[in-house]
Design goal:
It comes from Microbispora oryzae. By secondary structure, the chain is α/β, with parallel strands linked by helices. It has helices at 19-23, 44-48, 75-83; strands at 5-6, 27-31, 35-37, 61-65, 68-73, 88-95.
């Protein structure tokens, strides 16, 4: 299994971080098998596009809440890492308090 669970939605509270706020969080390594996705569907055009990260953050966005890691943004990057047989990726992790 690539991810811990395939979710559909964000069970954690709204955090209202801007792109600039996310950029201030230093990336760290995260194991793919500890992530819970917040999207159940992936657009193959996004996955296979050569410039898929050109306009966004290079690092996926993960929210840590209630002891779980939720992949908020960057599902195509995480899946691409798995297809390259990597078990970890660098992501920005926001730690939300309960």
């Amino acid at each position: 299994m690539i991810f811990k669970t395939i979710g559909d939605g964000r069970p954690y509270p709204e955090h209202s971080l801007s792109h600039r706020d996310w950029a201030a969080i230093p990336p760290r390594q995260v194991r793919l098998d500890t992530l819970i996705t917040t999207k159940a569907v992936l657009d193959l055009h996004s996955l296979l596009a050569k410039d898929s990260t050109f306009y966004g953050d290079l690092f996926p966005h993960v929210v840590q809440w209630n002891g779980e890691l939720y992949l908020e943004d960057g599902l195509h990057r995480a899946l691409r890492a798995a297809l390259h047989q990597r078990s970890v990726l660098h992501a920005r992790v926001l730690e939300l308090q309960d």
